[in-house]
């Protein structure tokens, strides 16, 4: 049976950068998939920190990407672009989740086919939409960039967020030893259940606790979302040949009181990364690594995304307010009631 695709669709748009109130539901042209892309009828999409930054005008989309917010989706494949050598298209009508280059806050989203994966077994759209941005980010940074190995220790800042809860689970599943920082006992309890040793940064010095838990050695890898205010303290928390990967700077981008001597004497590696500007080929490689190493664990329930709450697409502003409050634990998902 032929699938009817409308010329226009609902999407969350913003006329100018600003606070959550600039987000509103509007009508925009339905995208046409480019060569190697699929068009997905979106049933749910994830809310992520880069969406907040883009809304504020601080994180423009890369050239050629959709100007709409939204970096991860789950839904049904409804159309294919023209074929590209080496790219396999999921069948029309199949259920996929995908890492997008933008455009997820909409009824339809065009995305490279190589950045899509089938829903894990027994998943619905909400659970499937909670995977791509966080799991791609965690795998890319912990295992591609930082080369985290079995038996190594990793300190994950912000353990109760979407990235943090995924990182704890994946690190533990791959045989690493996760530590994490949290802001309150309730979030700490969640992270302990996921398998992490918890440090409450409001009541304890995370450097002292990290060294205590590692018998003075320090951790092998740190996944940091805070940035400048933590930079010097992160270096103090690393072991010899330790790796610091900075993926966000929620606390600010400027670092002070940094000892370059420590970098040299401990042979430390410091990397800053952003996934969105990466090439389609890089993201495709991450997708295949997830399919091989992580999808079997999702299928059997060994790993599972932690979902805090959902909002209808039209209430994207409320979802952004919640994320900016940092009072959530796990993922925030926007749903499309008319699409299910």
TrEMBL record:
CDD domains: p53_inducible_oxidoreductase. Keywords: NADP, Oxidoreductase. SMART domains: PKS_ER. Residues 18-334 form the Enoyl reductase (ER) domain. GO terms for molecular function: NADPH binding; oxidoreductase activity, acting on NAD(P)H; zinc ion binding. InterPro entries: ADH-like_C (IPR013149), ADH-like_N (IPR013154), ER (IPR020843), GroES-like_sf (IPR011032), NAD(P)-bd_dom_sf (IPR036291), Quin_OxRdtase/zeta-crystal_CS (IPR002364), Quinone_OxRdtase_PIG3 (IPR014189). It holds the Pfam family ADH_zinc_N. It comes from Acetobacter aceti. This is NAD(P)H quinone oxidoreductase.
């Amino acid at each position: 049976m032929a699938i009817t695709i409308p010329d226009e669709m609902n999407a969350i748009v913003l006329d100018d950068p600003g606070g959550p109130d600039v987000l509103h539901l509007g009508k925009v042209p339905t995208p046409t998939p480019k060569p190697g892309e699929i068009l997905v009828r979106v049933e749910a999409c994830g809310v992520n920190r880069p969406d907040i930054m883009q809304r504020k005008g601080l994180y423009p989309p890369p050239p050629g990407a959709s100007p709409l917010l939204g970096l991860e989706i789950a839904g049904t494949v409804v159309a294919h672009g023209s074929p590209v050598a080496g790219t396999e298209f999921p069948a029309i009508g199949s259920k996929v989740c995908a890492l997008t280059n933008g455009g997820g806050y909409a009824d339809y989203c065009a995305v490279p086919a190589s950045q899509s994966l089938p829903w894990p077994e027994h998943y619905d759209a909400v659970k499937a939409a909670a995977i791509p941005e966080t799991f791609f980010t965690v795998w890319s940074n912990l295992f591609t960039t930082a080369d985290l190995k079995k038996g190594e220790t990793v300190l994950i800042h912000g353990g109760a967020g979407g990235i943090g809860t995924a990182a704890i689970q994946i690190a533990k599943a791959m045989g690493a030893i996760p530590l994490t920082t949290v802001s309150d006992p309730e979030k700490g309890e969640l992270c302990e259940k996921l398998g992490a040793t918890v440090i409450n940064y409001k009541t304890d010095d995370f450097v002292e606790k990290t060294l205590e838990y590692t018998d003075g050695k320090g951790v092998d890898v740190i996944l940091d979302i805070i940035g400048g205010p933590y930079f010097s303290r992160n270096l103090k928390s690393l072991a010899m040949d330790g790796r610091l990967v900075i993926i966000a700077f929620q606390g600010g981008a400027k670092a002070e009181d940094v000892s370059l001597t420590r970098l040299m004497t401990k042979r430390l590696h410091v990397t800053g990364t952003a996934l969105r500007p990466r090439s389609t080929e890089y993201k495709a490689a991450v997708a295949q690594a997830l399919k091989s190493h992580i999808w079997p664990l999702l299928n059997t329930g060994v790993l599972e995304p932690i979902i805090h709450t959902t909002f209808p697409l039209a209430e994207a502003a409320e979802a952004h307010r919640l994320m900016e409050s940092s009072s959530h634990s796990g993922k925030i998902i926007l749903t499309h009631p008319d699409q299910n």
